[in-house]
Amino acid sequence: MRKDAELSLPEARQLAERLMRQQAALGLRVASVFAALLIGLPLLNQFLPELAATKIGGFTLSWFILGVAFYPITWALSFYFVRESDLLEERATLEAALEGKNPGKGETKR
Amino acid sequence: MIPLLFVTAIIIATIALGIVTTRKAQTASDFFVAGRSVSVFWNASAISGEYLSAASFMGIAGLVMKGGYDALWYPVGYAAGYLFLLLFIAGPLRRFGAYTIPDFAQGRFDSPTFRKIAVTFVLFIGFFYTMPQMKGAGVTMSSILNWPYWAGILVVGSVITFNVALGGMKGITVVQAFQYWAKLFAISVPIFVLLAIFPPHSSTPANDILATSKLPRMTSNKSFAVKGALATPANVIALSDQEREYVLFPEGAILDGVIPGRKMQPGALSASMVLSAGYLEASGQLPPELSGATLVNPAGFPKKGNILIPKNAVLAISPVKSEDGKPNSVKLSFAKPTKIQIYSGDGGHAIAPNAPPQDKWLNPFGPITSKQGFPLLYTYSLIIALVCGTAGLPHILVRFYTNPDGRAAKRTTLWVMVMLGAFYVFTPLWGTLARFNLPDLYANNATDSAVIKLPTIIGNELLGQILSGVTSAGAFAAFMSTFSGLLVSMSGAFAHDIYGKILRPGASDAQRLTAFKGAAIGVGLVSMGLGLLVETFDIATMVGWAFAIGAASYFPLLLLGSWWRGLTKFGAAAGMLLGGFSSLAAIVTSMLLDKKILTMEVAPLLRSLMEQPAIWGVPLSITTMVLVSRATKDQVPADVDIKMLRLHAPEELGYSKDYVN
Predict the structure, then answer these.
(1) Residues of chain A with C-beta less than 8 angstroms from the C-beta of B37
(2) Cβ separation of B72 and A63 shorter than 8 Å?
(3) Distances, alpha carbon B224 to alpha carbons B238, B340, B352, B538, in Å
(4) CB distance from B484 to chain A under 8 Å?
(5) Are B552 and B609 in contact (CB under 8 A)?
(6) B22 near B172, Cβ under 8 Å?
(7) Is B413 in the A-facing interface, judged by CB distances under 8 Å?
């Protein structure tokens, strides 16, 4: 059942840290784009109100960004993250198999 | 009558689906997390269905109507929170293999004591979240059937509680998924009809939403009901500062205040000077339709305390500019419920009281965020609450365990964001249309009912009733699904965590099921009781508060617990308790101040930070976790690296395990 016994603690720590570093780097990269947007829009509203009030169709620019454009942007960011994150995990699985440890008979249900 | 048919149909469909699927729910595992084998599409539909609550379906439209631009942060935050959940929490949490956040708390730190602490927040956040759902039920029933507020809560609350006690969550998975699609239909299809009838943007300036000169005017001069002091703060009528107006009191009134709408800047005219120097008029020609009434003498205004207004009296109000160059208005605060009529001095219909002026409504930093004078701070705090809070909602996270693996959990989150965005993009349109076509809701302090009421005013009455039936059914789907999910989580916390782990660790499956059902009924009753107390708060705002508490308690626990091996149980518990309880205390105090149950002078900056605490609550919680963990380094679990592997290694490597059997 559990594979815990097969790795010594230092080995486990090394592997865990490697996996986490990769995923965290990816997560932070995506998060920073998103955070820039969340921090930036109120600043735009505060310091460039004329630009924010530019009319686009029936909206102002600021309404358009917050009411409509925000959603597709978050979709694109999540799509990118899910794809990259899957790739990272496939690579980690391959590497582990090559190193001869845990040859892929975990209790996955996929 | 027609809306009632639609509502009945959705209730019957919900219960029938629940009963049919319950037959398949046999084991306790089925009951708690639906056997953990739900496909990505169904799971995403079910999460979205559970997530789209009364706040999404009714609350956003109401808040956009009331506050304009600033309210748009709510739907964006509700949807965007899933991105943070996706980036840092969804995958690891599923891989760790626990049913609930308390399971995670116990498994990550091998501490049953910590489980007891963690479980308390399921209840705090849960009850905070059920209050607005109950308000949604009360408002919908009073809109479509003229029931009193409490009756809607009682009937709807009982139906849902009964359904959950019968079916558990297996019944709910299919139901929640069905309800997502019902809600998407109900928010989108009617709005296309309404947009065709009331085009919001047209070449004539009078119909252009962006035209700053446009004012929402009442649709008739009929009298409308105002609430008394029991409904504080909804007992206030803020008159427009744009033009001369007459307020008629056909039945007389007892006011507890006639006060200037805006506090005077230092150096400008004092409040009393403004009011006596021409705001309230002692003389003048009354318009013909008011010729039988008597003019109230304004001497001595502004004042507070019992102000007796005789029957058939009129208050005449003309805007004057105070010395800071801005017009000011007058607020009437009512001690007892009564009826009033408002007439425009120019003839025609009066500007709706309580409606924000167009520029405030249209532009950022309007009435919602600048209430206390710190709009940028308020905005950021709201964003933090919503974005971080999504990860701290107990009834949502439990759903992630129904994914077969971590990868499916991430894919599910992606689909949830698409489904939520497709829904939320329609909600502000409702609020915008209601502002210009149904401004009477401002006067009644009933903006939360915009989605239900708006379709009824179109020319074709039958079509209007049908569309209102569709939105009423959608609203029902909204508070039914969220309330069910919360009931399952909270009852699960009782049955699984408190009863099954603490009170009677050896309890059999059957005993745990009985405990679950009993807990569901108890939690349902308490929720209904709380719902009765919150009629005057905006639905979306209340849900925002539940998010703020989640953001300062569970979010830091999950984030640091998944990514920092140095976190100890003492650090996690201290941060969660300090952040969570201080946010809770701040919000409750702020609510009591709003209701004037607490009366004390609070500096505006502090008041702003109390109303939206996430900007200090989340950092406080995280900092406490880090500092206390550092101080208790020796408490890091010995096998922490195995746990980190379990959280982060893909399933193929074989380190994941289902924590609870």
Answers:
(1) 109
(2) yes
(3) 14, 6, 11, 20
(4) no
(5) no
(6) no
(7) yes
Closest chain B CA to residue A95: B653
Q: Looking at the DSSP assignment, which residues form a beta bridge with residue A60?
A: A55
Nearest one of A74, A46, A44 to B415, comparing CA atoms: A74
Q: Which residues of B touch A10 (CB under 8 A)?
A: 641
Judge: B414–A78 Cβ closer than 8 Å, yes or no: yes
Indicate the pTM of the whole model: 0.90
Q: Which residues of A touch B417 (CB under 8 A)?
A: 71, 74-75, 78
Per the structure block, which two tokens stand in for B279? 């705001």
The answer to whether A58 contacts chain B (CB < 8 Å) is yes
- Distance of alpha carbon B484 from alpha carbon B162, whole angstroms: 10
User: Whose structure tokens read 């849900």?
Assistant: B543
CB contact under 8 A, A110 and B651: yes
Q: How many CB pairs under 8 A join A and B?
A: 175
**Would you say B582 and B613 are in contact if contact means Cβ atoms under 8 Å apart?**
yes
B-chain residue closest to A101, CA distance: B653
Angle between helices B112-145 and B569-594 (to 10 degrees): 30
Residue A104 with chain B: CB contacts under 8 Å: 652-654
Residues of A in contact with B69 (CB under 8 A): 62-63, 66
**Torsion of the alpha carbons at B538, B540, B542 and B546, rounded to the nearest 10:** 180
Strand partners for B257: B304, B333
Cα nearest neighbour of B73 on chain A = A66
CA distance B644 to B660: 18
Describe the crossing of helices B509-531 and B112-145 by its angle, rounded to 10 degrees: 50
Rounded Cα distance between B626 and B124, Å, is 24
- Amino acid (1-letter code) at residue B439: P
Q: Rounded to an integer, what distance in angstroms lies between the CA atom of residue B519 and that of residue B510?
A: 14
Distance from B628 to chain A by nearest Cα, in Å? Answer: 23
Which residues on B lie below 8 Å from A16 (Cβ)?
Answer: 565, 641, 644-645, 648-649
Instruction: Tell me: ipTM over 0.85.
Output: yes
Residues B231 and B595: their CA atoms lie apart, in Å, by: 8
Residues from chain B that touch A67, judged by Cβ atoms under 8 A, are: 72, 425, 428
Contact B235, B298 (CB under 8 A): no
Which residue from A minimizes the CA distance to B412?
A82
Quick: pLDDT tens for B14-25: 878 877 776 665
Neighbours of B314 (CB within 10 A): 21
List, run by run, the mean pLDDT of 10-residue segments along chain B (661 residues): 88 80 56 58 89 92 94 93 90 80 86 86 90 93 89 91 71 79 95 84 51 75 85 85 85 85 57 52 70 74 78 80 67 90 84 88 89 91 94 78 82 93 94 89 90 89 92 92 87 82 79 88 95 91 93 94 93 95 95 86 90 96 96 89 88 65 35
Q: Which backbone phi and psi does A100 adopt, to 5 degrees?
A: 85, 10
Q: Which helix (H) or strand (E) holds B591?
A: helix B569-594
- Rounded to a whole number of angstroms, the distance from the CA of B642 to the nearest CA of chain A is 6
Q: What is the pLDDT of residues A55-101, one digit of tens each?
A: 877 778 999 999 999 999 999 999 999 999 999 989 988 887 887 65
Closest CA of chain A from B414, distance in Å: 6
Interface probe for A, chosen from B47, B83, B195 (most Cβ of A below 10 Å), is: B83
Q: Which of B632, B481, B497, B646 has its CA nearest to residue B561?
A: B646
Spatial distance between the Cα atoms of B579 and A98, rounded to a whole number of angstroms: 45
SS (H, E, C) B420-474: HHHHHCCHHHHHHHHHHHCCHHHHCCCHHHHHHHHHHHCCCHHHHHHHHHHHHHH
